[in-house]
Amino acid sequence: MRQDVKNNATSRQLAAQKNLGSTLWTLGRRDEALDAYKKALRAEPRHAFANYNMGDSLVKMGRHKEALGYLKDALKAKPDYAGAAFVMGLAYAGLGER
Q1: 52 Cβ contact partners less than 8 Å away, ≥ 6 residues apart
Q2: Model-level pTM?
Q3: Distance (Å, rounded) from C-alpha 70 to C-alpha 45?
Q4: Which of 3, 20, 54, 91 could bond 36 through an S-S bridge, CB–CB 3.0 to 4.6 Å?
Q5: ∠23-78-3 over CA atoms, to 5°?
Q6: CB-facing half-sphere around the CA of 59: CA atoms within 13 A
Q7: Is the dihedral of CA 38, 45, 63, 60 positive or negative?
Q8: DSSP string, the chain
């Protein structure tokens, strides 16, 4: 039962930080949004959507090289994640690669 409680707490923390990051991003508070996404990833480093949010945000900020690691992790966690594959293409294009 203790493990279930820990898993539920981790899931709630992940969701809260991910939602906070999205809200901060919408408000234009980019650096704070990235911090929230990093906290979400500390709770669950292999979470596809948290990695995608981080990578997508970094691409939008022009930080293409940094974004690639997060997008690759999103695709490792969910290989059929079309959104992550698309944004990865944008990151490579931003680096001048094909």
Answers
A1: 70, 71, 74, 81, 83, 84, 87
A2: 0.84
A3: 10
A4: 20
A5: 75
A6: 24
A7: negative
A8: -HHHHHHHHHHHHHHHHHHHHHHHHHTT-HHHHHHHHHHHHHH-TT-HHHHHHHHHHHHHTT-HHHHHHHHHHHHHH-TT-HHHHHHHHHHHHHTT--
